[in-house]
Amino acid sequence: MPNIARNRKRVSLVVILVAIFLTGAWFMHRTEVHPQFGRIYVAGMSEHYTYWQFARLIVSKWLHRLPQKPYYDLGLQVGPDVLGWSSHENSPSKRDGYIYMRNPLPSGGNEPLWEFALTTKRRLSEVTSDDLKCEYFGMNDPRGTNIFGAAWTGAAILVPEGQLFFGRLVTNRSVTYVIRLAKQRGPDRSAMRIEYVVVTN
């Protein structure tokens, strides 16, 4: 009888853990919609493993299905390419990080990849097509300091948590990504989560 009771507790624990995992996965993948541009995508990265990533890795090992790529990321997947990010200074009063105009992948050769434009809007839902009619600035643009001030480094801009900006690839300026830096954490366990919509001009 004690063995049966012990086995029931183990099964109950496994069922509870699976339920928590599935609920978390559902929340992570639920779809929100912008009133004009459609689906709102979510992407994230970490400069270190997060607890959630460790849990996913453990479950993947149990199922003998290792992930296609490591969870230690070099950037955030935005459309077909990667947006580089790194933490700067994070405190209760100031949470910010760098977003890069260069290609962050080892195979990218630090070549220009993104052009950016800032907006004063604070929510994705507030952005309209008229807001996208603005000037973009790419890597090492000599006008960068005039527009971005001290936030400009030539290859990146320093942006706070909650910042909303527009990005487009230098190889395809017909598509604009409206990106909100939803959450930044660091520097000890640096991580970033973004929300974005895709607009075809």
- Strand order of the main beta sheet, please? 1-2-12-11-10-7-8
Question: Could you say which overall geometry the principal axes of the C-alpha atoms support?
Answer: elongated
User: How many strands appear in the DSSP assignment?
Assistant: 12
Low-confidence stretches: 66-72
- Per DSSP, what share of the residues sits in E-state strands of 2 or more residues? 35-45%
- SS-derived structural category: alpha+beta
Which range best describes the helical content: under 10%, 10-25%, 25-40%, 40-55%, 55-70% or over 70%? 10-25%
How many domain regions? 2
How would you sum up the major sheet? Answer: 7 strands, antiparallel
Q: Cα distance, first to last residue?
A: 69 Å
Q: Report Rg.
A: 20 Å
Number of DSSP helices? 3
What value does the average pLDDT take?
79
Order of helices and strands: HEEHEEEEEEHEEEE
Helices and strands in order:
Layout: H1 2-29, E1 32-34, E2 38-46, H2 51-62, E3 76-78, E4 81-83, E5 85-90, E6 95-100, E7 114-118, E8 137-138, H3 144-148, E9 156-160, E10 164-169, E11 172-185, E12 191-200
Characterize the structure shown:
The protein has 201 residues and is α+β, with helices and mostly antiparallel strands. The chain has 2 domains: 1-30; 32-200, no CATH class. Helix content is 22%, strand content 36%. It is built from 3 helices and 12 strands. The chain has helices at 2-29, 51-62, 144-148, and strands at residues 32-34, 38-46, 76-78, 81-83, 85-90, 95-100, 114-118, 137-138, 156-160, 164-169, 172-185, 191-200. It has a 7-stranded antiparallel β-sheet with strand order 1-2-12-11-10-7-8, with no helix packed on it. Strands 5-6-9 form a 3-stranded antiparallel β-sheet, with no helix packed on it. Residues 66-72 have low confidence and may be disordered.
